[in-house]
Amino acid sequence: MASMEDLARRMDQLAASFQRLEARLDSAPAPGSSLRPIRARLEAQSRPASDAPGSPALAPDKDVYSTEEEAKAKRARPAMYPHTPRRRLDTLEMAARKYKDSEALDFLQLKEMQGFYNLAAILLVFSVSYIVLRNVVEHGFRQDPIAHFLCPQAFRDAMIAGGIITTAVAFSMLVFLLQRAVVSGWMSPSVMLGLYAGVQCLSLTGAVAAVYLTPIGPLPAAGSLCMTMVLNLKSHSFVATNLALARERVELIAKCRASDDDGAEDADTEGAERPPRQKQAGNAAAKRRRRGRARAEAVAKEETAPASDPAASPEQSSPEAGADGADDGAVTAAPSRRLAALKYPGNVTPLNFAYFLACPSLVYEPYFPRTKRRRWKFIFRKSLEMLACFVLEYALLTQFLLPVLAAPSPYGPLMEIAKLAMPSMAMWLVGFYAIFHCMLGVAAELLLYADARFYDAWWSATSLDAFWRLWNKPVHEFLLRHVYVEGIHYARWNKGWALFAVFLISAVAHEIVFSASFKTARPWFALGMLAQMPLIALSKRFKGSRRGNFVVWFSLFLGQPLIEILYFREWMATKKGQFFCVD
């Protein structure tokens, strides 16, 4: 009976609780109370997150909202209508409060603002189309490819450029012969380095002199000088890498011999004091060490051994290839296996060097990873895309750039920069796609070259140093290995001096190409490259943000027309307007 009475009492208490809860659902908050009615709280929880009145980012001033007023409005409206008036913020204000820490383009890409983002894309396409259409209507088509490419100047320039590139290839083969003489023992490395420096200087100065002393145009001159520079960089990487391999090989041979001699002496000494069974084990260990020493000596004598084909399988160059499946001991295993894995000096062959000259890489490797087959559809598609890009480049140059550069604007350089900025950026982007994505990709596919990453996502770089690392991977890898790392390792530079050397060498190389191609001694490009160092330090303040990406694009947007005005305008003024067979 007692249990039944307790149960009935609890049921009465539960019913009273439900009655109090129902009363609170329809009651207004007490004066001075900070609690809102439960019904309003439940309605707030059922609303979307963006409409939640309890959200700190969306909470308005307390005196502009009353739950009682909202309840009155709800009771006064016809029940058949779906719309319920409630507390809601303005759409733009709600989005601004919710994403008040977001940046401009992040804000435009929200679901609430995607219409404006699409409008910006439509305006961009419409503006570009209008500029092209207006230019064609006012000036007509300026392209005459038959007259341009079949004029006597074009044939003359092609012959001069071909001669410059052929000479550069001959100098590169001479560098190979010098390296081969060192491998064969006919020449010491120090003598070879002196001759190598002379050959490199003669190759570069000869190309520059040929451009200056002949009437070649700027575009074919720049192409031939770039090819000469590429061949010089490849030759330097070939020599520097092989010298590093030779030093490492000598060190490994010395380590193997020293460790094998110490192991053999220890085995002979301990064998005299051991029991017969332990003496046999010591003799077996000594035999294994002697076999390892014999392998090291055999590798040391293979100075004139034939090189392996560049298409050799990766298994032939693996560290385990020369171990013979035996355990040479914890001391001698690593040096002997590393020594057996080195392809030097067998890699110094004409076939290996010719493959390196043809492959799309500026850093030499004794063995490059290879693909198994060629994708002919990919080659055909990228070749067509490259051809289309070059046609578009030609149209942009003749239709938009040359007319502006040939006639100085009476409104000053700012108006000229404004006219040149958009076609210059378009020409640069199309040229980047044609060279780095199409041309180098086709070359890699034809040569079965597997490492086909020639750029990274530079367009999303948030600092200038990230842009220079990402947009041109072959040049970046060359400067990283042969300037930055070797400067720190050999010259004992600190990181600051090594970074300065990277930009200095890059500035000098670009200035040689531009000054020689346009036949003007104006160090504008070199100064612009060196000015990147303080700009890099400044852009690091915005690293990781969209503002940093704006800084990168803004520098590119202004840099292209400035270079064209400083170099192209000089050529157009001094050469009476002759540029690529265009009057």
From TrEMBL:
Biased composition (Acidic residues): 261-270
GO cellular component, one term: endoplasmic reticulum membrane
Compositional bias annotation for Basic and acidic residues: 60-73, 294-304
Active site annotation, chain numbering: H510
KW Methyltransferase (keyword) present: no
One Gene Ontology MF term: O-acyltransferase activity
Keyword ATP-binding (UniProt): no
Region ranges (Disordered): 25-79, 259-330
Membrane topology: Multi-pass membrane protein
Subcellular location: Endoplasmic reticulum membrane
Biased composition (Low complexity): 321-330
InterPro entries linked to this entry: MBOAT_fam, Oat_ACAT_DAG_ARE
Domain of life the protein comes from: Eukaryota
Alphabetized UniProt keyword annotations: Acyltransferase, Endoplasmic reticulum, Membrane, Transferase, Transmembrane, Transmembrane helix
Transmembrane regions: 115-133, 158-178, 190-213, 384-406, 426-450, 497-515, 550-568
Similarity comment: Belongs to the membrane-bound acyltransferase family. Sterol o-acyltransferase subfamily.
Record protein name field: O-acyltransferase
